[in-house]
Structure formats: structure tokens, C-alpha cells
Design a protein that fits this description.
Blueprint: E1 3-4, E2 10-14, H1 20-29, E3 34-38, H2 41-49, E4 55-62, E5 66-67, H3 69-76, E6 80-89, E7 93-96, E8 107-110, H4 112-117, H5 119-123, E9 129-132, H6 136-145, E10 151-155, H7 157-163, E11 166-169, E12 179-187, E13 193-194, E14 199-205, H8 212-222, E15 226-234, E16 242-249, H9 253-266, E17 269-276, E18 281-282
Parallel strand pairs: 2-3, 2-4, 6-18, 8-9, 8-10
Antiparallel strand pairs: 1-13, 4-5, 4-12, 6-12, 7-10, 7-11, 14-16, 14-17, 15-16
Helix pairs in contact: 6-7, 8-9
Bound molecules: prephenic acid (PRE).
Pathway: Amino-acid biosynthesis; L-phenylalanine biosynthesis; phenylpyruvate from prephenate: step 1/1
InterPro entries: ACT-like_dom_sf (IPR045865), ACT_dom (IPR002912), Chor_mutase/pphenate_deHydtase (IPR008242), Preph_deHydtase (IPR001086)
Site (Essential for prephenate dehydratase activity): 180
Length: 283
């Protein structure tokens, strides 16, 4: 990654210490970061906008469970910019107090995304009650602090380590290609400088007329820019109208600027959410 900043950075993570957001933050911004826990994504955006933190990590999509669509709207309506991304391999584990066994467990608690990633394993235990929580690590911490027996959490090995829990079952994610894409966010002109880019995240709207969206996509393609992701989200307050979120990858910045020029001319709404270096996969 081509980010320049002075360490240590205060970095907002969604969840508590031990959450996958913390792992992603340490992998991208250094092990000496000061993690700042935020229980919701809304809180994470507000902390970054108010400069309570220097940066934030935000999960945006998972290769198995799909996109975290509300985060696209949060980003679009914020003053933040994307300065980087990372694809973190998510290894889920069943965590419980020492002494517990698969037979003694009655309830399993975790983040809905984590639960969705482990449906095959959970399907083998229909007797367990499944409970959703704000965060994988918070579920683990509550079991540890409350010394709750008969209950397990799904979460990272870092959470097991931090909260003194045993790994009852390792690697319980259904698909071994389980990656979550995290964005690195800062306030515009914040403490992280981005020196190069080959990818941009944008959002736009098209006229309600035949071929309007197809024409925009063709213009992007004609500039030699590769469209790697496209989502449509409802435009709140304007029933059955949509905002499209897209990722563009380019070899040359000039080609991307040409695509931006066309979008400015043809889209009814257009915003760049960030220009950054495409991220790599981290295990
Ligand atoms: O609960 C956590 O540990 C998180 O960091 C959140 C989150 C998510 O929002 O998708 C992050 C990665 C995993 O895909 C599961 C949960």
C-alpha cells in the first residue's frame, strides 16, 4: 500500500478489541495503532468526521455473505474519503470457556455476518439457539467477563487469546475462500496521504430513460477503465429511484479522469468516494 502517515494512528474499529476490524487495522496501518472501539458503523463514521480518530476501518463486503449495503449509504453521506482497502481472510472459530465441550453448548452468539459465514457448521447442531450480536469479539468478551457457561461465540483467534477462551472448533467458516473487504477511511485532508492510485469508488444516478445506465457503463468502458463492482441502492425519499455504487480500476490516471469527465456530463448525480491503491489479500 502507498500510504504515508506518522505513527501511531488512532484508528476507529467497528466492534471491540479482538474484532476482525482490529486485525484488518493492524495489518494495514501498523501494529502500533491505537484502536478506538465503536459499536456501530454510524458511530465509527462520526468519530472519524469529528477527528476523535485519525482513520477508520470499515467492512464493506464479504466474499460469502455479500455487501454490507447500509455502509455504502453511510459513506456517501459522510465527509470521509477512502484511502485504501484490504481483503482479509476471515477464519471463524467457536469460542467458549475452558471446560466446555460441543455437547455442553446450548447457545451460540455472534455478528450476523459471522453467523452467515458458518451456516454449514451450525447446521450440524440444530439443537443450538443462535443469537445475533453487534460484534464477534463482544460476544466472546461477554462470555469471558460474565463467566457464562453453556454459551459459545463465533470469532477470531485474537478474541480467544484476549479473553482467555478456548477454541472448541477451529476454522468453522463454510467456505475457505471467506474474505472480507475493509476500506480505510479518513477525513479529507486527514493525517494519511495517498501517493498513488489505480482504483476509485464512485456513486452516480442515471436518467430514467431507456439505455441511460447502459450508456454510462459504455462510456466508462470506452475510456479503458475496468468496472469491477456495481451495486444499486434505493435513493431514500425518492421512491423507486436508485443510486449506483461502482468500483473502477485503471492503468492510467488520465483514462480514469476521462471517465470522471464523462460521468460529470451524463450522470444526474455523481460523487467520488475515494481514489486509492487496489488492496491485496491477507491471510
Ligand atoms: O464482528 C467483527 O469481528 C467484525 O469485525 C465485523 C465483521 C463484519 O462486519 O462483516 C467483519 C468481518 C467478518 O466478516 C464478520 C464480521
Amino acid at each position: 500500500m502507498t500510504l504515508e502517515y506518522e505513527s501511531p494512528l488512532r484508528v476507529a474499529i467497528q466492534g471491540v478489541r479482538g474484532a476482525f476490524h482490529e486485525i484488518a487495522a493492524r495489518e494495514t496501518l501498523g501494529n502500533d495503532i491505537i484502536p478506538v472501539e465503536c459499536l456501530t458503523f454510524r458511530e465509527l463514521v462520526a468519530a472519524t468526521e469529528s477527528e476523535k480518530v485519525d482513520a477508520a476501518l470499515m467492512a464493506i463486503e464479504n466474499s460469502v455473505a455479500g455487501g454490507i449495503l447500509p455502509n455504502y449509504a453511510l459513506l456517501r453521506n459522510s465527509e470521509l474519503q477512502i484511502v485504501g482497502e484490504v481483503y482479509l481472510r476471515i477464519v471463524q472459530n467457536l469460542l467458549a470457556l475452558p471446560g466446555e465441550t460441543l455437547e455442553s453448548i446450548k447457545e451460540v452468539e455472534s455478528h450476523p455476518m459471522a453467523i452467515q459465514q458458518c451456516t454449514d457448521f451450525l447446521g450440524e447442531h440444530p439443537e443450538w439457539k443462535i443469537i445475533e450480536s453487534e460484534d464477534t469479539a463482544l460476544s466472546a468478551r461477554k462470555i469471558s467477563e460474565g463467566e457464562i457457561r453453556g454459551k459459545a461465540a463465533i470469532g477470531s483467534s485474537l478474541a480467544a487469546e484476549l479473553f482467555g477462551l478456548n477454541i472448541l472448533a477451529p476454522e468453522i467458516e463454510s467456505n475457505k475462500e471467506n474474505y472480507t473487504r475493509f476500506l480505510i477511511l479518513t477525513k479529507k485532508d486527514g493525517k494519511i496521504r495517498n501517493t498513488t492510485s489505480n482504483k476509485a469508488s464512485i456513486c452516480f444516478s442515471a436518467k430514467h430513460e431507456p439505455g441511460a445506465l447502459a450508456a454510462i457503463l459504455k462510456d466508462i468502458a470506452d475510456c479503458g477503465v475496468d468496472l469491477t463492482m456495481l451495486h444499486s441502492l434505493p435513493k431514500v425519499g425518492a421512491k423507486w429511484e436508485y443510486i449506483f455504487h461502482a468500483d473502477l480500476v485503471y492503468d492510467s490516471y488520465m483514462q480514469y479522469l476521462q471517465a470522471v469527465k464523462t460521468l460529470n456530463e451524463t450522470a444526474t448525480y455523481f460523487k467520488v468516494l475515494g481514489e486509492y491503491q487496489a488492496g491485496s489479500e491477507i491471510f
